[in-house]
Write a structure and sequence with these properties.
- The chain is built from 14 helices and 22 strands.
- The chain is an alpha+beta fold.
- It has two domains: 7-118, no CATH class; 202-310 and 323-503 and 518-524 and 549-566, 4-Layer Sandwich (Deoxyribonuclease I, Chain A).
- Strands 6-21-22-7-8-10-9 form a seven-stranded mixed β-sheet. It has a six-stranded mixed β-sheet with strand order 11-12-13-14-20-17, with helices on one face. A three-stranded antiparallel β-sheet has the order 1-2-3, with no helix packed on it.
- The chain binds adenosine-2',3'-vanadate (KL2).
Amino acid sequence: MERVDGVRCLADGWRLLISFQIKANKNYPMIGRHLTTVDSRPAQFVYTHWRHWYKPNNFWQTQRHPSSSVCSATQPFNRPPRPPDPYNWSSWRQAGILAQSQPRRGFLHSVGPMDHCERGPPQKRRKGAEKLQSGERSVHLPKSSPQKGSSSPKGSPQLLPDVTSNQTPLEPFFPLIELKRHWEDFSHVCQAPTTNEGKEKQPFEFSLMSYNILSQDLLHKNAYLYRHCHPPVLEWEHRFQNIIKEMKLHSADIMCLQEVDKDSYDEQIKPALESLGYQCEFKRRTGLKSDGCAVVFKRARFSLVSCHPVEYFRQGIPLLDRDNVGLIVLLSPIDPQSSFSNICVANTHLLFNPRRGDIKLAQLALLLAEISRVAQLPDGSICPVLLCGDFNSVPWSPLYRFIKDRRLDYEGMPLVEVSGQEQHSRRTRILTVPIWPRNLGISQQCQYESQRDSDWKQEEIESFTKPSIEHCLNLTSAYSHYLQESGQSEVTTCISRTAITVDYIFYSAALGDARAQAEGIAPPERGLQLLGRLALVGEDELQRVKSLPNQNNSSDHLPLLTCFRLYPQADS
Ligand code: KL2
C-alpha cells in the first residue's frame, strides 16, 4: 500500500477501501465526527469530487484519474480507484468511510459547523420541497450546466488574508481564473451645475455597494443549490474572509448588504466593519429567520439622521405573511459647510418565490411608502433616494418597470409574470384588484393613509377598483442590464445554475446624469449623478470561473458597486 498526499488507496477487486487522514478541526466538525482521524492533514486535501483529484502540485485535475503512481502498487487489476464522491453520501458508505447508518443527506451536513448539522435534513428537505412546489426552481437553465468544481484567481494572493481568525487558509486547488470586472467611468458625461455667479459647485462624491452575501443558514437549508461547488469554498470562515477582503478592496462609503446572518453579524461582520470605520445598522427578518439586511456607512463621511426598519409581515393580512424586511437610513453627508441635503438609503431583500408576484408587489409598496415618508423634506419635495438590494425580479419585469416607470397597469397579469424569474411556467392565478387590501393603510399611490374609513377621499376609494398602482419616486437604475461590449445580459446571481440579474441600485437621477441622458429622461435638477460603476459580467464569464460561489467569489451574488456625485442644495 502506498501513501499519497493524505490518501491511502487500496483497490481490492471492485471494492475500494480508502482511509483518509483527516484532522478534526473546527472547520470540519462533521468530517471529524464521521471519519477517522489518522494524522494532521487538513480535510480539504481529501474532501473533493473524484473528478477533481488532488495532485501534489496543488492543482485539481478535471476528468482524470490519479496517475498510476498514485495507486498502482496496490491495484490488482490495474483499475484506477475511484475516490468517493463527496456530494454523494452513499459513495462514502460504499468506500467504507461512513457507517451505513449515517444520514443520507450528507452534503447538508458536510459544509458547516455543528450547530447547523443538528437541525437535520428533514427541515432542509422540506424547505427545498416547499420551494419546488411553489415553483422556486428556476427556469432558463443554461443547456450546458456549469462544470463541477470551483476556481481561483490568476495572480491573486495564494493565501487569503487572515482577517479575523487564525483559521488555516484554503490551498489553491484549481487552475487560477479570475473574474474580471472593470470600472465604467461616466464622470466625463456628467455635467456640473453652476451657481448663480457662474461658478461650478463643489460636489460631494461617494460610493455605494449592494451585496447579497449569501446567508450561511440559507446555504445549508438550500444545500442542493450548491452541489456544483467544491465544499471547502462554502465554509463560512472561508467565505467571510473573502467577503471582508472584497469589501476592504472596494471600500465603499455605504454598503447595503442582504442575507446577513444575525449571529455572524454580531460576532464577526459588525466588529470587522467597525474596525474599518463603518457604522452599522441591521434589521433581522421576522419569524425565526436568522438573516437580515444591513446598511453600513463610513462614519467619516456620513452621520446617521434616522434609521427605519420595515417589516413586511403584517398580522391579520394574509397576503403579507412572509418574513422579508427592508431597512432605510437617512444620512447626512459630512461636510464643513453642511451644504448638502440628506440622502435616503433603502435596502431590501424581497420574497424569492417566483410565483408570488402579488406578495412581492405588496412588500415593495410598503417599502416605497416608508421611503416617501422618510425622504420627504419640509417643502414636500423628496431628498435624493438610493434604493438597492435583491428584488428577486429580473430587468424589465413588471415589478422592475413599476419601480422605474412609477406606474404599473396590471389588469389580468398572472402572478408568476410579475418578477419574470420563470419564463415558462403555467399561468395560474392573476393579480387581484386591488393587490393589497385597503386595511393595510397603503394607498394605490404607495403612500400611507389613514385607516379611518371616513377619512378616505372619493378618488382614493375609486383607485382601489382600478388595476393600476403608482408611486412618487423618480428612480433610475445604475446598471443598464446589458454589457456594453458584447450586448450580453448582465448577471448578478446564479440561482439553480441560472444566471440572471435580480440585484439593483436605483437612484434619484439629477439633471446632467449620464444614465438619465442615455435613457432619454429629463430628470429634476436636484438628485444624484452616476460617476461610474463596477462592470458586471455575462453568463459566459461566470461559467469560466465555475459559477458562483467559487473560491474567490464567495456569494451566489456579485456585489454591485457605484459612485455618485451630489451637488449642494440650491445656491448654498
Ligand atoms: O435568489 V436569493 O436566494 O435573492 O439570493 O433569495 C432567496 C433565494 C433566499 C431567501 O429565501 O434563499 C434562496 N431556489 C433557489 N433559491 C432559493 C430557493 C430555491 N428553491 N429557496 C430559497 N432560496
